[in-house]
Amino acid sequence: MSGFKDPGYLERKSAATDARKAALEKFRAGTAANDPAAAERQAAREAVRTARDTRAAERKVAKAAREIELAQEVVRARELAEQAAIDAVAQAKRDAAERVERDAAEAIERKAVRDARYAARKARKK
Fold first, then answer.
1. What is the value of pTM for the model shown?
2. How many structural domains compose the chain?
3. Can you tell me the distance from the alpha carbon of 92 to that of 86, in angstroms, rounded to the nearest whole number?
4. Domain contains 79
């Protein structure tokens, strides 16, 4: 047998508790409020966090601005489409009116030619 005694459960448990307490005390001592290095690290972390939050806010603002611009473009496109539709209807009405006028003028011309032929035929018979 060996010359040392195995520690029991309670001894191991108390040793682990003591080790945790010692580690906690060491950590607390390392991050004491009067430690200028710790305060400097904390300030640096705070500056990084503030910068990150600022960049995130700027990205949010830029995204909102892009969304507003896209919405305005959609509105402009819709207005242009509506205006184009109105213009197309007006052009179709003008084309129809011109076609009616042209058809009427052609009908009048045909009637005049027919009347002239009729008058010529009547004149030859006399």
1. 0.46
2. 1
3. 10
4. yes
